[in-house]
Amino acid sequence: MSEIKLIAQKRDANGRGASRRLRRNGMVPAIIYGLGKDALAITVDHNFIYHALKKPVFHTSILNIEIDGKVETTLLRDFQIHPYKQLVLHLDFQRVSDKEEVQISVPLNFINEDVCHAVKVQGAHITHIVTEVEIRALPKHIPESIDVDLKDVAAGQSIHLSNLILPNGVTLVNLLRGEDSVVVTAAGINEEKDEDQALVSAADIPTVSGKAVE
Q1: pLDDT higher for 136 or 117?
Q2: Largest Cα–Cα distance of the chain, in whole Å?
Q3: Closest CA to 45 of 94, 12, 8
C-alpha cells in the first residue's frame, strides 16, 4: 500500500462564489469526512492535484493530508472535473482507520497477453470484460492493482473473479455477494480450410436442361 502526503489549508468561506475565487487562485476546494468526526472543509494546490489524478496509484493510496501541523489519514472518494476545461472542481476525502476495512475500486493489471496461448498459437483475441474490481481490505492491505495472468489462457476459455489471485487480506465484494463475474475471455479462433475440401469448379455449377445457369 502506497502513501502520499498532501499539504492543505482550512477553508472558512463556502458557496459557489468562494469556490470560484479559490480556483482562480490555483486552489481546489475539498472536504474530509468520516470516522464519526465533523466534516472539515479544506483547500489543496490545483497543480499538484491535477497531475496526481492522472496517476492510478493516487486513487488507491493512503493520502496523508497535513493541515496546520495535524495529519488526516484518508482515501480519495470522489472528484469533479470541469466538462471541457483542464480544471479540477472539487474533491472528497474519507478518513480511514488502520483497524477498519474499507471498500474501494482497484484496477486490474492484465499481464502476458503478448504471449497468451490463445493469441499466439490459436489466433484468438482477448476481450477485457472487467477492468477494475471492488475490494474490501484494511487500508494497509489495499493493492495498487491486481494482476490477471493471461499466459496459459486457451481459446474458448474465460477467467472469472474466483480465478484471480488476491493479495493477503483482500476480498472481492462481488464474490461476497455470490457474483462470480467474467473478467476476460479468449474467443474468435481463425478458421483454417480443410485440406480435404475440394474446390468448386465450373463443372460443379448446377445446370438446367443441360445448360449452365447464368
Answers
A1: 136
A2: 100
A3: 8
Beta-carbon neighbour count of residue 66 at 10 Å?
Answer: 13
Q: pTM (2 decimals)?
A: 0.79
- Domain span at residue 172 reads 102-187
Same domain, 75 and 119: no
**pLDDT tens digit sequence for 128-169:** 999 999 999 999 999 999 999 999 999 999 999 999 999 999
Looking at the fold, whether 144 and 165 belong to one and the same domain comes out as yes
**What does the chain look like in DSSP terms, one character per residue?**
--EEEEEEEE----SHHHHHHHHHTTEEEEEEEETTEEEEEEEEEHHHHHHHTTSHHHHHSEEEEEETTEEEEEEEEEEEE-SSSS-EEEEEEEE--TTS-EEEEEEEEEESGGG-HHHHTT--EEEES-SEEEEEE-GGG--S-EEEE-TTPPTT-EEEGGG--PPTT-EEHHHHTT---EEEEEE-PPPPPPTTPPPP-GGGS-EETTEE--
Q: Examine the fold and report which residue of 73, 95, 117 is the final residue of a domain before the chain moves on.
A: 95
